[in-house]
Amino acid sequence: MLAYQLAVFGNPIEHSLSPEIHTKFAEQFNLQIVYEKILVIENDLPKAVNEFQQRGGNGANITVPFKEDALNLSSELSERAQKAKAVNTLIMFNQNQWLGDNTDGIGLVNDMLSQHIVLENKKILIIGAGGASRGVIFPLLLENPSSITVTNRTANKAESLAKEFGVDFITFDEVHNKSYDIIINATSSSLKKETLAIDSRVFNSCQFVYDMMYGKEETPFLTWAKNNGVAKISNGLGMLVYQAAESFFQWTQLKPDVKLVIQHLR
Over the stretch 164-213, which tens digit does the pLDDT of each residue have? Predict the structure, then answer.
């Protein structure tokens, strides 16, 4: 019998690197796992997860657009999932109940720390007020930055998110009037090849820019930052692998070597 029958649920799902990442983690421990991709039709997540569980599934990742839906499948929630109001990892406990966790934020933090980025006492700007931002604010706050500021194209969305987490808010129009050490792009602008309506002076005193998106080429946002004098930039591939490592640890209590897998994917 396989100890770990795992899956990732989402739509679209074909592009997911999760099976490859978790298989590489398992190989480090000679661990037998099966990890499948499951395409979920709109509103069908409870049915899909239930069928997976009936087949012996005992751990899962949830990706877009179902992270909020996965809250309702969880009998219990970790503090990270409660704060994020989203679940990306389901961990089985008490035989057939799911604990919902969110490993996105710790994935981002661990990737930054692995690149020797100091977060303590730094001024951090997060661009975007959707699920990606929501998932990372609490873990970033635990690193004791001097401030976190949220901005977004739709200002009232950023304002209510900032209020919820007790962080600062600023509009796109005013964002360049303050200085930041670290800027995180949590929007999907790079996926859509869109530019953000922000003054490039926002990069003036910035030391590090992080784009949660990743691809074979440098993202437009990172190119923009580099062209405006930012010395250190990073895409979100490391975040993907570090959040997966945290999920893997929650299921198995084993800590994989993340850097080997990042090298493999690159």
Answer: 999 999 999 999 999 999 999 999 888 788 889 999 999 999 999 999 99
User: What are the domain boundaries of the chain?
Assistant: 4-102, 105-238
Element of type H or E holding 184: strand 182-185
- The amino acid that residue 50 corresponds to is N
The CATH number given to 105-238 is 3.40.50.720
DSSP bridge partners of 77: 100
Residues 182, 155: contact at Cβ < 8 Å? no
Classify domain 4-102 by CATH architecture: 3-Layer(aba) Sandwich (3.40)
| Annotated catalytic residue 67 | yes
Q: Supply the pLDDT for residue 190.
A: 81
Residue 234 binned pLDDT confidence (cut-offs 50, 70, 90)? very high
What CA–CA distance (Å, rounded) separates 100 from 11? 19
Three-class secondary structure of residue 226 per DSSP = helix
- Which member of 24, 37, 47, 67 is catalytic? 67
pLDDT in tens, 116-151: 999 999 999 999 999 899 999 999 999 999 999 999
| Cα–Cα dist 47/53, whole Å | 10
Q: How far apart are CA 154 and CA 128, in angstroms?
A: 9
Can you read off the two tokens belonging to residue 139? 């873990």
